[in-house]
What does this fold into?
Amino acid sequence: MKKIAPSILSADFSRLGEEVRAVEKAGADVIHVDVMDGHFVPNITIGPIVVTGLRKLTSLPLDVHLMIEEPGRYIEAFAQAGATWITIHAEVCRHLRQMVKKIRQLNVRPGVVLNPATPLRRLSTVLDEIDLVLLMSVNPGFGGQAFIPEVLKKVEQLRKTIDRNRYPVEIEVDGGIKLENIGEVSKAGGDIFVLGTGIFKTASYRETIRKLRREIEK
Ligand code: DX5
Ligand code: ZN
It folds into this structure.
């Protein structure tokens, strides 16, 4: 089943609890949590303590996207905080397969993220060990950036590789997704769609999610 994952990065943090409950009620499938350290990306956001809080608020899966320089130092803390999925960037991992296995051992579903400029071949040693690949369709760091259309080809190619080898791996796409382009991303082979501004900056979350779902189920 295709999934819609609101990114809380664009939520109103003074009312984070209400915002998460609102998107859950509006039909979201997953809550996407953007963790940034001010090193791997220029922005700083949240840590495990907020994930612990989120875990108490919602029964939806928590999709923790680690945009941090040394994920190995924090994986355990995010697992304990209640992450359902943890995705780590290939660009910062010298021993990617080892790190993925470590996530799995902590009973968390592992995923690997690629920046727009990072080639798919970086996945060759981990595709049989992970549950999801997150393809960035903007350069990570901030919400509200424009979708990079070249990433569609990457989604298509990865879809073919996954299907050909029958890997039980989902493709997630993150950055610049809106009602206007989610259909294309879905047709290219995406399974999970992350939207920050595309949901939280709209008037009715329920209406938006209903329309998004119509686009991905076409
Ligand atoms: C970007 C983050 C995204 C971001 C997406 O670094 O990883 O999850 O919140 O925001 P939009 O949907 O506004 O591009
Ligand atoms: Zn993200």
User: Anything to note?
Assistant: The chain has eight helices and eight strands. The beta strands are 3-6, 31-36, 62-67, 85-89, 109-114, 132-136, 170-174, 192-195. Residues 1 and 191 are 7 Å apart (CA to CA). The first strand starts at residue 3 and ends at 6.
